[in-house]
Design a protein that fits this description.
The protein is an alpha/beta fold. It is 22% helix and 28% strand. Helix 6 packs across helix 7. The chain is globular and about 65 Å long. The site of NADP nicotinamide-adenine-dinucleotide phosphate (NAP) has 28 residues, from strand 1, strand 2, strand 3, helix 2 and strand 7. The site of NADP nicotinamide-adenine-dinucleotide phosphate has 28 residues, from strand 1, strand 2, strand 3, helix 2 and strand 7.
């Protein structure tokens, strides 16, 4: 399974301004084109409940004839409120939608959603990384071969914990959004411990206007540049 991620972040690693409920762009039209182009290279997009609520619509590529599977990860504590049936995404015909959730809702609740919504329970939901592994196995069994993790930070972290993201496309936006804003790796509930700290190898970088378009290959054992040092100046061993 090819697994890529595409996000935009501010200079302080945030993906959305604080205190906004609706999707709020932090990049230019050029970046949106870049995101849509990447959507055209995968069969499914994966995102979390917060991202769904910020943008409860179809995720489109440039090729409007392609059908993308939409995969949503939710704890589903109040499903009809968290994923409202009248959301524009559910009104679209023919979009395969997968909802991954710790416990399946009642048959009646499931029946209230359109037929193209498929529900899947994840027993190991609260084990870091497990939701991502279950999603990947399920989609692979359904014959899918490529997915893109679109965010937000909580879901990116789950896929990093599963050591699943192979490539990251990151657009660096020349903004500072402050520490209350949603971060690229969520709210810090799932820290990475040395040496299992994801490390990125820069494959390419392009400057377009005032943004940087970074393309990374990810690895999941970090040796550099994090070193323990007893030297007082912290610079030499
Ligand atoms: N700049 C970008 O590229 C970009 C991309 C995507 C999103 N965004 C923005 O990022 C913000 C959302 O990011 P976010 O990090 O707050 O949320 P998120 O990753 O979109 O969603 C988090 C939600 O995922 C669900 N979830 C399922 N399993 C989980 C698990 N094991 N651990 C944690 N969460 C799990 C829960 O949904 P429930 O609450 O439904 O239970 C949780 O609240 C929005 O403002 C969105 O617009 C920006």
């Amino acid at each position: 399974m090819r697994v890529i991620a595409c996000l935009a972040a501010s200079l302080d690693g945030k993906i959305s301004p604080a205190h906004v409920e609706r999707y709020t762009r932090i990049t230019t039209d050029v970046d949106i084109q870049h995101l849509c182009r990447l959507r055209d290279t995968v069969q499914a997009v994966v995102y979390g409940g917060n991202t769904f609520r910020a943008y409860p619509k179809k995720h489109r590529g440039l090729d409007l004839d392609r059908t993308l599977h939409h995969v949503i990860l939710t704890r589903g504590q109040n499903i009809v409120q968290d994923l409202p049936i009248d959301a524009p995404l559910f009104q679209e015909n023919q979009i395969p939608i997968w909802i991954f959730i710790p416990q399946l809702p009642s048959i009646d609740t499931q029946a209230a959603y359109p037929d193209h919504v498929q529900w899947r329970a994840i027993d190991s939901f609260e084990i870091p990384g497990e939701p991502a592994k279950v999603i990947l196995n399920t989609l692979a069994q359904a014959g899918l071969e490529s997915i893109m993790v679109e965010g937000g930070g909580e879901v990116v972290t789950q896929f990093l914990k599963a050591q699943a993201i192979q490539e990251l496309y990151l657009t660096l936006s020349p903004l500072f959004l402050g520490n209350q804003a949603a971060g690229l790796t969520g709210n810090g509930n799932f820290p990475f411990a040395f040496p299992q700290i994801p490390q990125a190898k820069l494959l390419s970088v392009q400057q377009l206007e005032n943004e940087l378009y970074l393309h990374y290959q990810l690895a999941y054992e970090t040796s550099w540049p994090i070193v323990e040092s007893e030297a007082e100046d912290g610079f030499s061993n």
